[in-house]
Sequence to fold (157 residues):
Amino acid sequence: MKLDARDIAILRVLTAEGRITNADLAARVGLSASPCWERVRRLEKAGVIESYNARINLKKLGPSITVFVTVELTDHTARAFRLFEAHVDGIPEVAACWALGGGLDYLMQVITRDIEAYQEVMDALLEAQVGLARYFTHVVTKPVKGPCGPPLDQLLG
Fold:
């Protein structure tokens, strides 16, 4: 899909402010409301905009721990990868998971109330017999830079 400068401006604003009204979005990108709405709908229909999300301040909810886990599987067949991915998709504490190239197989972001709850998640994953050979735990001690949108200017320009 070919994006023009207005499409990119819309994406930039929506990445930072997903709940902005269409009227405010249109004003920010220099369009009237109707053409702006049509562009947003076109971007959604094309799958460029997948969803709208809220960033939650976990500190406001109570104790929590974020852990990044690198995972290595015992088998490197397509079936083994599908089995692991399908299982991980059903674990609510796994906030995100990425397949990796170059040594380790996956990087998972796991969020639980404490380290004991994290270990329960990992023990259950081991017991599920989904091909987990070994894993390495990396506990987040403090956030430095939070989730943000992609660098649109660098990617598209």
